[in-house]
Amino acid sequence: MSANFEGAVKTAEGVLFNGVICQPVVEKCEGCDRTKQFEDATYCGSYAQPAAKWALGACNFATHVKASLDKQGKVKLNPLKASKRAAKGR
Ligand code: SF4
């Protein structure tokens, strides 16, 4: 994984990184390989606003769950097996 919030600055609004304010990850991000620790909080390496990513369903970049919609149009999350995850990360 590349940049580890190198040069990031903590501000009142969130962490300023590459000109973008990053918000901490949400509960559903837990276990995702894209999360990154910066100082006392965890942020997403792919999205500045993880909460927005989950607001409309499931994050399509999540590495820990596979989201799909059921017939009612509700989001279904299927945890990915660790072995699958490792293979996918390559
Ligand atoms: S990629 Fe999605 S699930 Fe993973 S940390 Fe970022 S917002 Fe959360």
Automatic annotation (TrEMBL):
<protein>
    <submittedName>
        <fullName>Uncharacterized protein</fullName>
    </submittedName>
</protein>
<dbReference type="Pfam" id="PF20657">
    <property type="entry name" value="DUF6811"/>
</dbReference>
<dbReference type="InterPro" id="IPR047766">
    <property type="entry name" value="PxxKW_fam"/>
</dbReference>
